[in-house]
Write a structure and sequence with these properties.
By secondary structure, this protein is α/β, with parallel strands linked by helices. It has 18 helices and ten strands. Helix 11 runs parallel beside helix 13 and helix 16 packs across helix 17.
């Protein structure tokens, strides 16, 4: 039975579908390191954890870590070290091989809480975090078998480093990303899968260091197709004894428009106390999700633009989205050009910036091009943007 999970990583029997995508990722990992690009709430972290669970069947020791709360490079390496010693199938052998090395001597205390479970603290003071990471990768390379290291929310960590620095002084971020690239290239028995709800490709492009990730195979994770969406809704209805007709399921998909699992789960959550919901109940559920009390459901889409793109690009993106939310049938590129005219006078620079911003908005799930017009990929996000973000139209607009 599939449970209605709305705000947690989905695991175990509640994880639904994604077999085709996961099969494709495993195939890619046989030869490459991967960068998984996926907008927020598509189910990226759930997929990574599912892969980690079944990594041994694919010939890997699976390591998963979320680095969104790490505040500097040393904490990043410490999180990496702890995750490997906690979860690697050969953790005891790994520790025996490094405890007398320089790396082992940088650790002030290791407490073993059980088979393969370690608590690690590093010596205080200035630490050579780069060397620590390299020696750890070298130790993994020397073990039997392959290791898969999945790093979730890496772009969030990178942006924290950027936010600590002046925008014109980006050497620290460059050093970190090129260091991570050297790790990926120098130890072929260690595979890496990097992911985040903010695009690492966008961050690297913003810093003019796209070559720091050009060794990665690009994979994406998108919304469910209609068949899978109906199947999920049927399973949820069965679990909660709700009579969800074909017509009502179709109406849910029409209102969602872009059926990512999180949105389907959210709407079903509002319906599951109805024994036989109707279309009007679906509409009421959508209105509730868009009211002021639930703005946190979608507000991240607004907040992430500044984090991911910085100014002034985030302002340009917001202006384009403000224009698009007022046109359900889409906006022509020429209209977007006019939107940016006041801010960017030079036509060549304006075209270059428009191309970049539209690429980001398309890749990150905001906009989609259809019949030479640009529109919101998600009708729900468009309604939120119209109600909560875009300024009211004036008589001159």
């Amino acid at each position: 039975m599939v449970q209605n999970v709305t705000n947690q990583v989905v695991e175990g029997s509640d994880f639904f579908d994604r077999d085709r995508e996961i099969t494709r990722y495993w195939k890619g990992l046989q030869t490459d390191n991967l960068l998984l690009l996926a907008p927020r709430r598509v189910g990226k972290s759930s997929v990574l954890r599912r892969m980690n669970q079944y990594a041994p069947k694919e010939g890997f020791n699976g390591i998963y870590l979320d680095v969104s709360d790490c505040r500097d490079e040393l904490r990043f390496v410490q999180r990496l070290y702890s995750a490997i010693l906690d979860h690697h199938g050969s953790a005891d052998r790994l520790w025996e091989g490094i405890k007398e090395s320089w790396l082992g001597k940088t650790i002030s205390r290791v407490k073993k809480a059980g088979a393969g479970v370690f608590s690690i603290e590093f010596e205080p003071g200035d630490m050579d975090w780069a060397r620590m990471g390299e020696e750890l990768a070298e130790a993994l390379e020397g073990l039997d078998g392959k290791t898969l290291i999945q790093i979730d929310e890496l772009p969030v960590f990178v942006l924290k480093l950027l936010n600590r620095e002046d925008e014109t002084e980006q050497g620290r971020i460059r050093e970190f990303l090129y260091w991570l690239r050297r790790l990926r290239q120098g130890y072929p028995r260690v595979r890496w899968m990097l992911a985040g709800s903010i695009g690492l490709d966008t961050v690297a492009s913003r810093l003019n260091i796209a070559d720091s990730i050009n060794d990665l195979g690009i994979e994406t994770l998108g919304a469910f197709d209609a068949e899978t969406s109906h199947a999920l809704l049927r399973e949820l209805a069965k679990t909660y004894d709700v009579e969800l007709t074909d017509a009502v399921r179709a109406h849910i998909l029409a209102r969602v428009g872009w059926p990512i699992p999180h949105y389907l789960q959210l709407i079903f959550h509002k319906l599951r106390d109805c024994k036989k919901p109707q279309n009007a109940d679906v509409d009421a559920a959508v209105d509730t999700l868009l009211d002021a009390h639930h703005k946190g459901v979608f507000d991240y889409w607004r907040q992430r633009l500044r984090d991911e793109m910085g100014r002034p690009d985030a302002d340009y993106a917001t202006a384009l989205l403000n224009s698009a939310c007022r046109a359900p049938s889409g906006v022509r590129r020429s209209s977007f050009q006019q939107t940016l005219t006041r801010a960017i006078a030079d036509p060549d620079l304006r075209e270059e910036k428009l191309r970049y911003v539209l690429d980001v908005l398309e890749n990150d799930g905001y906009l989609v091009e259809h019949e030479k017009s640009w529109m919101f990929r998600s009708p729900l996000l468009r309604e939120y943007w119209s109600r909560r973000v875009a300024p009211p139209e004036t008589e001159h607009e």
